[in-house]
Write a structure and sequence with these properties.
single chain, 148 residues, alpha+beta, five-stranded antiparallel beta sheet, 8 strands, 28% strand, globular
Length: 148
């Protein structure tokens, strides 16, 4: 029968604690490279260099993924876990506003402009204020086409 060496439980716990401490220290020393979802545009890979996206919380566990490309703005909606909400569909230049039957108000303001905005109201009733969120800016050298 093979024999295995046993390490005392205290030594094993001390080793694990030392490794965890070293790991935490190394991550605390390096700056975070990930920005909060609603604070900075997410740049696409080089093949899609003229696309900028920004995900913003619009209330009631719903977020809006706002994307600006040379062909204009688009918005897709996601639930709390980040799954698309098919019943709300996508907003773009052809369909800049959700129908009243959607249950929430969402509209792209200035869909043919250079600085579109998303106006939403998800909760609070008729007297509640609307939220307005700017779309991210395109990278330098990129332009929105079809401006009116």
């Amino acid at each position: 029968m093979p024999m295995y060496a046993r390490a005392p439980l205290g030594a094993a716990i001390a080793t694990a604690a030392a490794l965890a401490g070293a790991l935490l220290a190394s991550t605390a020393a390096t700056p975070q490279t990930r920005a909060p979802a609603a604070s900075a545009p997410v740049r696409a890979p080089a093949s899609k260099a003229c696309i900028a996206s920004l995900e913003a919380d619009i209330g009631a566990g719903t977020s809006a993924l706002m994307t600006l490309s040379p062909s204009g703005p688009t918005v897709t909606f996601k639930d709390g876990p980040g799954h698309p909400i098919p019943s709300l569909g996508t907003l773009d230049r052809k369909r800049p506003e959700l129908p009243a039957s959607a249950g929430i108000h969402a509209e792209i303001l200035k869909p043919y402009g250079t600085a579109p905005q998303l106006r939403t109201k998800v909760e609070g009733g008729p007297g509640a204020p609307y939220q307005v969120q700017d779309f991210p800016k395109l990278p330098k050298g990129c332009k929105v086409t079809g401006i009116k």
